[in-house]
């Protein structure tokens, strides 16, 4: 009798890898069931190997026909840097749980402004596409530090009726933050019904303050530290109005005008020391392994 196969499921195979910069990269993996179930705004929890950390990553795209799910990742900590080195085409992710979280609500808005800053450009794309497919006029505002970091502007051009690109240094599009793009969009379209903003907390806070006096509904996507993705660990607590909610099960989308961004930023800093120590330990391990490899050669 033949031995049972120990190969990992083909559904987790990485089929596409694209590097947008020295720290930002795209992984497209095969998972037909997840691709069929995925909705804009949802996320997955990924383990790259059996002893790896479980990390939440927002779904950047999905292709039901191909049976694939796309993630765009920024290598900032130990696990994301490790994945940057090991996750190549043909490799397999050890485990992927999802789709998780409440899908973004795509209502009856006739004109929607979708704002993405930096890495947040990726997860706002499915929402822009969904609003467009729902019949809305979609205006996109994308913000990057510099021209060399721009990605997916071509994808947004296909689903947006208008697209505004902002760069901090003015190397492409408007010179300034995404809030400048928001102001430009409202000058031309004062009848915008809804705003969707995704990016770093400070960027989303800026977007919320830009839309607050206009009294326009503004949804943001929060991705604080998560562990189990079920709300049991309490790691992803966020203050929304007078409630304490959990981003993993109550979100990740929330009314930006109610989110306590100061509390969110404070919570994210609580793990800075642990994250730094983990990264330093991993870097040292890589250095030791590198010396060992040279010694063998």
Provide a descriptive summary of the structure in words.
The strands form four sheets. A seven-stranded mixed sheet has the order 11-10-9-8-12-13-16, with helices on both faces. It has a four-stranded antiparallel sheet with strand order 1-2-6-5. Strands 4-3-7 form a three-stranded antiparallel sheet, with no helix packed on it. α5 packs parallel to α6 (201-211). The protein has helices at 32-37, 78-86, 121-133, 153-159, 178-188, 201-211, 247-250, 261-269, 272-296, and strands spanning 14-19, 24-30, 43-47, 55-58, 61-63, 68-74, 95-100, 111-117, 137-144, 162-167, 174-175, 194-198, 217-221, 237-240, 243-246, 253-255. The protein is α/β, with parallel strands linked by helices. It is built from nine helices and 16 strands. Among the domains are: 11-100, Translation factors (Elongation Factor Tu (Ef-tu), domain 3); 111-221, Rossmann fold (3-Layer(aba) Sandwich). A hairpin with a 4-residue loop joins β5 (61-63) and β6.
Please state roughly what percent of the residues sit in beta strands, choosing from under 5%, 5-15%, 15-25%, 25-35%, 35-45% or over 45%. 25-35%
CATH names the topology of the domain at 111-221 as Rossmann fold
Largest sheet: 7 strands, mixed
Mean pLDDT: 86
How would you write the strand order of the largest sheet? 11-10-9-8-12-13-16
Helical element count?
Answer: 9
Radius of gyration: 20 Å
**Span of the ends, CA to CA:** 41 Å
Considering the protein shown, what is the CATH homologous superfamily of the domain at 111-221? Nucleotide-binding domain of ferredoxin-NADP reductase (FNR) module
Tell me the overall shape. Answer: globular
CATH structural class of the domain at 111-221: Alpha Beta
CATH architecture of the domain at 111-221: 3-Layer(aba) Sandwich
Q: Residue ranges: pLDDT <50 for 5 or more in a row?
A: 1-9
SS-based structural class?
A: alpha/beta
What is the helix/strand order? EEHEEEEHEEHEHEEHEHEEEHEHH
The count of DSSP E runs of length 2 or more, i.e. the number of strands, is 16
Residues in helix, %: 25-40%
């Amino acid at each position: 009798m033949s031995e049972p196969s120990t190969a990992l499921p083909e559904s987790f195979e990485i089929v596409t890898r694209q590097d947008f910069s020295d720290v930002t990269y795209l992984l497209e993996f095969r998972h037909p069931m997840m691709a069929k179930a995925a909705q804009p705004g949802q996320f997955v929890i990924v383990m790259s190997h059996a002893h790896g950390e479980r990390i939440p990553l927002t779904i950047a795209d999905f292709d039901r026909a191909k049976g694939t799910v796309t993630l765009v990742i920024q290598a900032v900590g130990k696990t994301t840097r490790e994945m940057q080195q090991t996750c190549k085409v043909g490799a397999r992710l050890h485990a992927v749980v999802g789709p998780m979280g409440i899908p973004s609500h795509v209502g009856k808005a006739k004109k929607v402004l979708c704002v993405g800053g930096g890495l947040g450009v990726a997860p706002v794309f499915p929402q822009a596409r969904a609003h467009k497919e729902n019949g809305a006029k979609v205006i996109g505002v994308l913000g990057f530090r510099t021209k060399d970091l721009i990605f997916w502007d071509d994808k947004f051009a296909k689903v947006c009726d208008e697209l505004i690109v902002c760069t901090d240094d003015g190397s492409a599009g408007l010179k300034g933050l995404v809030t400048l793009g928001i102001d430009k969009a409202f000058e031309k379209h004062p009848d915008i019904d809804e705003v969707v903003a995704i990016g770093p907390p400070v960027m989303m806070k800026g977007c919320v303050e830009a839309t607050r006096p206009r009294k326009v509904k503004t949804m943001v996507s929060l991705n604080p530290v998560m562990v189990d993705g079920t709300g049991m660990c309490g790691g992803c607590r966020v203050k929304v109005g007078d409630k304490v909610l959990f981003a993993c099960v109550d979100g990740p989308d929330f009314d930006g005008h109610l989110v306590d961004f100061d509390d969110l930023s404070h919570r994210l800093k609580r793990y800075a020391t642990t994250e730094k120590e983990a990264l330093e330990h991993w870097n040292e391990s890589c250095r030791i392994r590198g010396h060992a490899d040279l010694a063998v050669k």
